Amino acid sequence: MHSAPEHMTHAERAAMGCTAGDQGRTGQAVARASSDAADRRPRVVGRRAAFNLLAYVAAYDSRERGEGEAVAWSDALGPYRIPVEDAQAAVRAYFLGPNRHRWITPGDIVELVEEGVQS
Fold it and tell me: What is the pLDDT of residue 17?
């Protein structure tokens, strides 16, 4: 038995769902992956990651940072599981914006990341 679109490349058949693997999966349930499944970047989760982000922030505004600040920032940012590079991009964007003379807060970072600041 030959497949009907033999003149197509494998990539073209795959795009149309005409490969043997696709046909073998016919009728199988599709399980939706979590939105973070393919994104394996390090996240701002835990005190160490929060402290490192605070060190990055301190390069801009010379704030003091320590264990207490790291715990507070970890508590505030941890549930959002923001990738470190996105958080750093938000910090850069913040200090290039109109509020650059005010200290950044975890809420500012969340807001900027949710608005889609690019790294």
Answer: 64
User: What pTM was computed for the model?
Assistant: 0.67
pLDDT digits (tens, 9 = 90+) for 11-21: 666 666 666 66
Region of residue 117 (left: phi > 0; alpha: psi -120 to 50; beta: else): beta
| Locus of tokens 């058949």 | 13
- Our CA dihedral for 107, 77, 52, 55, rounded to 10 degrees, sits at 20
Report how far apart, in Å, the C-alpha atoms of 67 and of each of 26, 32, 73, 81 are. 54, 39, 10, 20
What is the rounded CA–CA span in Å between residue 20 and residue 3?
A: 9
User: Domain limits of the chain?
Assistant: 47-115
DSSP conformation letters of 49-85: HHHHHHHHHHHHH-----HHHHHHHHHHHGGGT-BHH
R_g (Cα) of the chain, nearest Å: 23
Residue 63 has pLDDT above 80, yes or no: yes
